[in-house]
Specification:
The protein has a single domain, classed as 4-Layer Sandwich (Metallo-beta-lactamase, Chain A). It is of the alpha/beta class. The radius of gyration is 17 Å and the shape is globular. The chain has a 7-stranded mixed sheet with strand order 1-2-3-4-5-6-7. Strands 8-9-10-11-13 form a 5-stranded mixed sheet, with no helix packed on it. Helices cover 35% and strands 23% of the residues. It contains 9 helices and 14 strands. Helix 5 (166-178) packs antiparallel against helix 6 (194-212). Bound molecules: zinc ion (ZN). Zinc ion (ZN) is lined by residues 63, 65, 131, 150, 159.
Length: 248
């Protein structure tokens, strides 16, 4: 799926897979996230070149997860920006973790790093944590576009992983809203809006209440904010991760 939001913003994704966003700015085309597959990333590069007919300026990774970074290999010659944490997490993938993923020839890590924030005339990149400690959002100032990475899943259950922090995640969603974006590209799913942010926030609050025992599983399952999301298997998996966090 390739979707042009206007003549400067293109989102490439497929049902449930991670979104790749390309935006034409004054400093060239900015690509956010590179997908799991190097072949797909190479195709994205061609598509972007055909669509904008302008050079790629910079590539950004929202966080270390392979479905957002393994395609970096197709963009090796460019400036690849991420938080320092993202790079260090990518450097510590172990054999067992990698064995569960499609094998790739080479992991290309970001080559331009920031600690908490990176800002230039077009972009504000801010590490907010939440989904993972390195989860960062990219705000395109002129377009009023926010690319959220996996802080937002639209229409899908979110992936709450072993290193997720629900409180930081909820704060991150609130922060995104303060930017008053016109366009919101989630990590997975269709183009979102403020209501999608609030639904994600309510989802995470309810997960917190569930593990605290304040609501039961039935209350959760009968909530449309849960039952209508795709990939229900992710719900069980997320719950397991949260219970494990609590136990440890
Ligand atoms: Zn992720």
């Amino acid at each position: 799926m390739i979707k042009a939001l206007n003549d400067r913003i293109v989102v490439i994704g497929a049902e449930g897979s991670s979104n790749v966003t390309a935006v034409l700015t004054k400093d060239g085309v900015v690509i956010v996230d590179t997908s799991l597959f190097p072949e797909k990333a190479r195709k994205v590069k061609e598509l972007v070149n055909d669509f904008f007919k302008r050079p790629i300026g910079v590539v950004v990774n929202t966080h270390y997860h392979p479905d957002h970074t393994f395609g970096n290999v197709a963009f090796e010659e460019f400036k690849i920006v991420s938080s320092e944490l993202t790079k260090s997490f990518m450097e510590s993938f172990d054999e067992e973790y990698l064995s569960k993923l499609p094998s790739i020839d080479k992991i290309v890590t970001p080559n331009f790093l920031f600690d908490e924030e990176y800002e230039d005339r077009n972009l504000l990149i801010k590490r907010l944590g939440g989904h993972t400690p390195d989860s960062s959002i990219i705000f395109f100032k002129q377009e009023r576009l926010v690319v959220t990475g996996d802080l937002l899943f639209n229409g899908f259950h979110p992936e709450i992983v072993a290193d997720s922090d629900l409180d930081a995640w909820i704060d991150a969603l609130k922060f995104i809203e303060t930017l008053k974006p016109i366009w919101i590209v989630p990590g997975h799913g269709e183009i979102a809006n403020t209501e999608s942010l609030r639904a994600m926030e309510r989802y995470l609050m309810k997960m917190k209440r569930l593990i605290e025992g304040a609501v039961n599983l039935q209350d959760v399952m009968s909530d449309e904010n849960f039952s209508k999301r795709k990939f229900p298997e992710l719900f069980g998996w997320s719950l397991e991760n949260l219970l494990h966090q609590r136990g440890s």
